[in-house]
Design goal:
binds iron/sulfur cluster; TIM Barrel
């Protein structure tokens, strides 16, 4: 089982469309060590992967101890990070928000972090969030991915306007360049399929596992910094208390709400063949 832990919503940057800004005030305190251990105890025996997300998880004062603690228990640890800083203990995998790598403001610091992760044999995923104006960065995104990435994760920068073909073509061009260079690349979120031409869509479905349907509900969960409030995905704030999951699986607990969201339909989708064929429910549920 995989759980995502958000130890803090604090972050030194202010990236476009980042969800963490809106949660910072609700969860103003960081996760305590006691709550971290209580989350671990709650899932002990079922857990084989933990991913720390944020905010900026590296800013959490117990991140080094937590990585060490979990690694000593044989649990694989991933950290989602802005790449501006590096932990002292090494996780198995880092997922770096790589848009900032393409601008001169932060790239030196980030490259330094990535090089340290590589020296320590940490798997590196670069994540690109793609908007209408991304075309000018495509060449550089391929160059840095060739040099540093074990994997690349791609997503439109949400919210994305349905039928916004420019976003689709930027995502497609980057994906094609990465695949031509034999870099394993995946579209990581449900995407409105109408932002692509038919050929682009077929290519991305085949080569990057792209889907129009959100994979929720799953049996993974996101735990907030208070250590007790949980949600099904970091983008989707359907809050429950960890204790409510004692007698039910996570999937079971969220099934109805997620299905209701999938069935909610906007006028753009009403006549769409993808919607009728249940191949697309409007992309990422948090933004449809
Ligand atoms: S279901 Fe909606 S978002 Fe998906 S392809 Fe059709 S119109 Fe676009
Ligand atoms: S709601 Fe969006 S981000 Fe969350 S799992 Fe679904 S597609 Fe992914």
């Amino acid at each position: 089982m995989l759980i995502y832990i958000i130890p803090t919503y604090e972050c030194g940057l202010n990236c476009k469309s980042c969800y963490s800004q809106k949660y910072k005030e609700i969860y103003s305190e960081c996760l305590t060590w006691e709550m971290f251990i209580s989350i671990y105890n709650r899932f002990e025996g079922k857990l084989n992967r933990v991913a720390f997300i944020g905010g900026e998880a590296i800013k959490w004062k117990f991140i080094n101890e937590a990585i060490l603690f979990l690694s000593n228990k044989g649990i694989k640890v991933s950290v989602f990070t802005n790449g501006m800083d590096i932990s002292r203990t090494m996780p198995d995998h880092v997922i770096i928000n790589a848009n900032n790598l393409l601008t001169e403001f932060h790239s030196d610091l980030m490259i330094n972090s990535i090089e340290q992760y590589k020296v320590n044999r940490v798997k590196v995923t670069l994540r690109f969030n793609i908007d209408k104006s991304f075309e000018k960065y495509i060449g550089n995104a391929i160059v840095v991915s060739k040099k540093y990435a074990d994997f690349v994760s791609l997503s439109p920068l949400f919210p994305v306007k349905y039928s916004e073909k420019k976003v689709g073509s930027n995502l497609f061009m980057l994906a094609q360049g990465l695949i031509d260079n034999k870099i394993t690349s995946r579209v990581s979120r449900a995407v409105p399929l109408c932002i692509f031409t038919e050929n682009q869509r077929i290519y991305l479905e085949k080569n990057c596992n792209m889907r129009g349907v959100c994979s929720l509900p799953t049996n993974s969960i996101v735990v907030n910094p208070d250590g007790v409030s949980v949600q099904p995905c970091v983008e989707l704030s359907i809050i429950k208390k960890l204790d409510s999951l004692i007698n039910k699986s996570i999937k079971e607990e969220y099934r109805c709400e997620i299905q209701t969201l999938k069935n909610e339909i906007s006028c753009e989708c009403a006549e769409c063949a993808f919607y009728k064929g249940r191949k697309c429910f409007g992309g990422c549920l948090a933004y449809k």
